[in-house]
Amino acid sequence: MVHVSMAVNGRQVSAEIDPRTLLVQFLRENLRLTGTHVGCDTSQCGACVVHLDGEAIKSCTALAASCDGANVTTIEGLAQNGKLHPMQQAFQDNHGLQCGYCTPGMIMAAIDLVNREGPNLDEAAIRHGLEGNICRCTGYHNIVKAVMQGAREMAAAATPKAAE
Amino acid sequence: MSATGIGASVKRKEDIRFITGKGHYVDDLNRPGQAYAYFVRSPHAHATIDKIDATEALKSPGVVAVFTGDDIAADKVGGLPCGWMIHSKDGSPMKAGAHPALAQGKVRYVGDHVAVIIADAYAQARDAAEKITVDYGELPATVDTATAANSGRPQLHDAAPNNTVFNWHVGDKATTDAAFAKAAHVTKLDLVNNRTIPNAMEPRAAVGEYDSGTDTITLYTTSQNPHVARLVLSAFVGLAPENKLRVIAPDVGGGFGSKIFIYAEETVCAWAARKIDRPVKWTAERTESFLSDAHGRDHVSHAELALDANGKITGLRVHTIANLGAYLSTFASSVPTYLYGILLSGQYDIPAIYCEVDAVYTNTAPVDAVRGAGRPEATFLVERIVEIAARETGRDSAEFRRQNFVKSFPHQTPVILAYDVGDYPKALDKALELADYKGLGARKAASAAKGKLRGVGFSAYIESCGLAPSAAVGSLGAGVGLWESAEVRVNMVGTVEILTGCHSHGQGHETTYAQLVSSRLGIPIENVSIVHGDTDKVQMGMGTYGSRSGAVGMSAISKALDKIEAKAKKVAGHVLEASEQDIEFKDGKFTVKGTDKSIDFGSVALNAYTAHKFNGQELEPGLKETAFWDPTNFTFPAGVHICELEIDPQTGVVTIDRWTAVDDFGKLINPMIVEGQVHGGVAHGVGQALMEAAHYDSDGQLLTASYMDYCMPRADDLPSFKVETIETPCPSNPLGIKGCGEAGAIASPPAVINAITDALGHEDVTMPATPQVVWRAAQKVATKRAAE
Predict the structure, then answer these.
(1) Given B580, B597, B629, which residue is the final one in a domain?
(2) What is the band of B663 on the pLDDT scale with cuts at 50, 70, 90?
(3) pLDDT reported for residue B207
(4) Are residues B691 and B576 both part of a single domain?
(5) Which of B201, B283, B683 sits opposite A102 (nearest CB)?
(6) Structural domain range at position A122
(7) Which of A26, B400, B579, B663 is the most exposed place for a label (fewest CB within 10 A)?
(8) Among the listed ranges B602-606, B709-713, B780-784, which one has the minimum average pLDDT value?
(9) Of B597, B629, B661, which marks where a domain is finished?
(10) Max CA-CA distance within chain B?
(11) pLDDT category, B784, cuts 50, 70, 90?
């Protein structure tokens, strides 16, 4: 067993775990944060994307022990004070989800895409940027629309802060 | 139309929990004291099981039990049945081999279930699997669909000589042969409909739990139809009586057909939970999904189309070999027969059709319904051969279709189905306009100038949905009726719960069903909750597949709402001291005709339960009604999809430039959700056409058992879609709904292949049209041009 300690959605957590525990298993089983999903076993589908120190990673490919001391944000940590993150809202507004299984990973990947590449993403950039996430339900059409809206609104939400 | 009523693009109620990570999927659930199951699977496609030695595995840390097929058989828990009896053309019943939940004596495909290891932790069960020794006697395998029934091929089941399950037929051979004898032109086509793997993003999962106090099993499972699962596990598998078995399907992460069926793993978890008196959980790893979810399609066909001198289609003759895999899955036999052969008239007035289907066993995973189920196979065949016939006889693709469309309704096809209503030319016209068909020539020239090849492909599809009239499917061999049930439970202050036997796994029932109730009762959709997926709560149901949740499921709700309205009028009459006949109900208000005396719906509900204003012996207190809706006909969604694409002949890469869909789904409840269903369906079909294929090698090893090898459509493989509708209301249900869930997957593969073959100028392209396939096909054109 190894000791691991990290901040998850702003809360400090620690546990003694089997060294082979993956980050996604730690989140789902130890912390019971079941919004992060597992859709494959080869890091291909993206259902497990979370943010590690502000950047998107596939949590099925990281050992929890290697995340000791890190800051992790999961889908459960996005909404603040009961208000949805603009990207979450955009997915609902644009019908960017059907069964909902890929959705947490898709939203986390989309936010990371906007963080990395800025809010002025065209359709091609969004489609390319979401290559690591598979959705079987939507045909991606409405996901692309959602990410465009989410990107705009993330920028709008950030603007007043920048002015301060 | 109100902002939340029928026809409004209401944002989905269920989204909030999914976008905040608060969904409840089966793998999210842990039961107190649960153990974990790991399945030992066959590494061989075909082998005898000579010995299983679990001694070391049982000593492994945390291991609770190891069970094999003999253990489950000793408990008299039977095999997994196929629920649709097909008779061969000689009248004999289909020949089905036994399908044990855990293999007995023999394994028949890679991934077949040999034993289950149950341990305190999943990793312990998985580790222990390394220590179990199975002695296999390897046998040669039958893998190839086309030759599986040939003499001398390795035999899978003693019960099915020549690996043949049935030789079925539909239509009239003599009149069809006569049509061909008189034909001015005959188009011939050999085609393969590639095997695909469904790939819902949520892998299958199950938690079995046993309560020894009540002798009751609860199975939490990823099911599209929990009541059917309970029926099969009770009446056929013999696990427990229905009243001692509860099946719960909570949030389910996509189905696409693959979660209709009753599988070994779910059965074993439920059985083992009682055996060890502890909850047992299993969640598939993705490779297990590839190996053991029921696959789709896998047809090898020869088709011939007869035309007269004017280009009128006079006959269609089809022979298909359908691969059903190693065992018959729950509805496997219905897919290449009554969901395939009877769709072969397409949108066309074809006077004579004859179709023969040989269904074969092979040493591959079972094959059953995947989104569209039989209808994509029929549409691919019809729309390919119609396209080729137009090209061979020098006719415009669109006009040749228009010439042969069914134009008057009802229309009796020669293959059982009678189409009730439609307007095929209207959909075609609208699609041609939206796709700017007139501008195609200029776009082709522009592509050619860049060294690219541009092509356009049509698909005028029809499907039979709204499954299905019970008596009709019973006469065709179905083991169940295909009605749907609903319960409308009005609470004391006027909020409403709708209990439905359908199941939502992406379709958005929590929104669309609430829209119906809101429209009918005049109450806000927030006041309506949908309850589904639990056999203890919902009275009965047949589940969600075959685009039936609207046409059948909502019709049942509508019928129950009729009863609610009738009862509520009686109550309102007593409260308002007026005759029931004088009460009008509109916009949530009961009014005495010609007066301003009225009472709202919530107050009527309260009065129904307080029962102060009427005699409880003459009028029962309460406001709760149930209904079963049995459809009188299938529904017939139809439409035209046009795919326009560009090929880079240097690389074989296909880029879909524009996709136009014009569908007739009858009345729409929520256009936003309908469009989303079309988008997803088209993507699924484009996947089959361009990249998806389950490949087995000649020994029966699955070569595509991960996302590294099985190519799924991703965001940058697809364009945005132009999706519009026309509307001819369905006459056979009260809401005029036809269904929309499968249309895209049915329509799209031939549109893609017709476009590629248009661009290349020859027909020799197979699915999936990967860059390699297309590059080779393009080389053929280049070589031919060079030779000229």
Answers:
(1) B629
(2) very high
(3) 98
(4) no
(5) B201
(6) 86-159
(7) B579
(8) B780-784
(9) B629
(10) 94
(11) confident
B648 shares its domain with B615: no
- Do residue B750 and residue B609 come from a single domain? no
From A45's Cα to the closest Cα of chain B, the distance in A is 8
**Interchain contact, B201 vs A36, CB within 8 Å:** no
Give the H or E element holding residue B753.
Answer: helix B743-760
CB contacts of B254 in chain A (<8 Å) are 98-99, 101, 136-137
Does the pLDDT at position B643 exceed 80? yes
The verdict on residue A164 lying in a domain is: no
Residue B280 lies in a domain: no
- Mark whether A134 and A111 lie in a shared domain: yes
The whole-angstrom separation of Cα B374 and Cα B338 is 8
B581 Cβ neighbours under 8 A, 6+ residues apart: none
Running DSSP on this structure, what letter comes out for residue B182?
T
Is the bond preceding residue B768 a cis peptide, omega within 30 degrees? yes
Angle formed at CA B576 by CA B573 and CA B577, multiple of 5 degrees: 75
pLDDT digits (tens, 9 = 90+) for B530-578: 999 999 999 999 999 999 999 999 999 999 999 999 999 999 999 999 9
Beta-carbon contacts of residue A52 (< 8 Å; ≥ 6 apart) = A23, A59, A62, A67, A70, A71, A72
Number of compact structural domains in chain B: 2
Give the count of domains, chain A.
2
Q: Which residues of chain B have a CB within 8 Å of the CB of A136?
A: 199-201, 254, 256, 680, 684, 712
Q: Do A99 and B508 touch (CB under 8 A)?
A: no
Please check whether residues A91 and A36 belong to one and the same domain: no
pTM: 0.97
